[in-house]
Amino acid sequence: MSDVEASKPQKRKKGWVDFLVNFRWILVIFVVLPFSFSFYFMQYLGDKRSERKSYKQRQIEHEENVQKVVERLKERNPSKDGLVCTARKPWLAVGMRNVDYKRARHFEVDLSAFRNILDIDKERMIAKVEPHVNMGQISRATIPMNLSLAVVAELDDLTVGGLINGYGIEGSSHIYGLFSDTVVAYEIVLADGRVVRATKDNEYSDLFYAIPWSQGTLGFLVSAEIKLIHIKEYMKLTYTPAKGNLQEIGQAYMDSFTPRDLDQDNPEKVPDFVETMIYSPTEAVCMTGRYASSEEAKKKGNVINSIGWWFKPWFYQHAQKALKKGEFVEYIPTREYYHRHTRSLYWEGKLILPFADQWWFRFLMGWMMPPKVSLLKATQGEAIRNYYHEMHIVQDMLVPLRRIGDTLEWIHKEMEVYPLWLCPHRLFKPPMKTMVTPEPGFELQLKQGDTPYAQMYTDIGVYYAPGAVLRGEVYDGVKAVKNMGNWLIEIHGFQPQHSVTEMTEEEFWKMFEPELYEVCRKKYGAIGTFMHVYYKCKKGRKTEKEVQEAERAQPETAYADIEQPAG
Predict the structure, then answer these.
(1) Distance between CA atoms of 339 and 298, rounded to whole angstroms?
(2) pLDDT at residue 90 tops 80
(3) What architecture is the 393-512 domain classified under in CATH?
(4) Which intervals hold domain FAD-binding PCMH-type (predicted)?
(5) Residue 242 to residue 236: CA distance in whole angstroms
(6) pTM of the full predicted structure?
């Protein structure tokens, strides 16, 4: 074989799993979409029933449900019952990571009742919500008041609990940080049954800073108090094309929201919302948004685009038009803008239903979109699940903004996935060693986007089949994700744990800071009760041996005889 032939990409042999994947759309149309629509409708009715109750009644029910959790924890026999986790079925999780830890022996606690908005305090500008409240539910409640959470993750189904215990971001995160940065208080049920309220300045401040990224392994989150902001009825959105190589596109993205004079806190220079979508190695569209009143949006000559209608083009395809028509501006109703990627699941909908973006499908069946992610997972089976792990990328990479160009080039070389989603966020300098921290000493030499109290990072959303897979070539997705972890460790980046990780435990703790997390695990009795965060995120089934070793790490029972939860 010649050197030229040896260097040619090898074609991948297709099997029966490829056939199932290619024709999965039949199952999605006739089973998943109808069931998804029915589920969303029933969920909507449940939300409406909750809204008819007074905040006082919801709080009473909340306290009753918290007491049930306390009583359930006290029923556990640590020597027999295994580690504690929620009773939610593994396939119900929105993230693409397999919830394999629930396949080991465990003790279930049902938190399904925690799905109420407990209070919207317009004076304190705080929303108190339970962990299963999702983004669609909270935006329906707050936007009519011209209020909003400071950070509203794009997909309707994402829950408060998942965004706090894991990771959450939105186009306003370059101002407010990650979702967890907008929380002012957590209500937590600890392993011993105590119910505590953790804030940044009370006796549980260490727990307050340890909860984000802990994946629910320090206690059960039963409510959160989250910052609200004043908003307007519309988002004035500017679409700006960017062309060049990946380094030049990265710089255009930075310039769209970060002043080169480092005046990052100046609202005149920094937009309210930011995102960029890269469609190829040479083309991208940068979008910047500012809140606008109805009066401004309806002025003569302004274009209003209600993108929320089911028959409208998918948002990422609509934005792509800027590559041909040049920069343009339009006004989008605020709630519709918040959830602009829900219908198409960014661009994943194109892989699930290849024709779902066509006008005839959008008009006839678009009202049933999107398929519920949990139902997609429930109907895929083990073989298809493994296929997606090897042939499909669903990852977020959080990297210092100054490394955006280098990381885009790395992704093109290792994964070749397009489109890519870019969304910036502040990474605040914490008073304690939390799991995720800025680069040491960043404040001594500020870069574009940085301030003395926060380093600017960016999320790079990598969601699609790699180019090699689309061309029918051999591709090692496991190796690519492994290499991604190593790259992130090298540049002080982070991999959110809603997706598959290939890191060893040693590599995991090179990426994340363990000090505060481990102190809180011991201090609040989580050892021997809740699974360790690495083993909860670890790929593959959790063996009985691993569970037993985790349990033996806490020789004494974690439970105290507590009759009433303490506020």
Answers:
(1) 22
(2) no
(3) 2-Layer Sandwich (3.30)
(4) 52-231
(5) 19
(6) 0.91
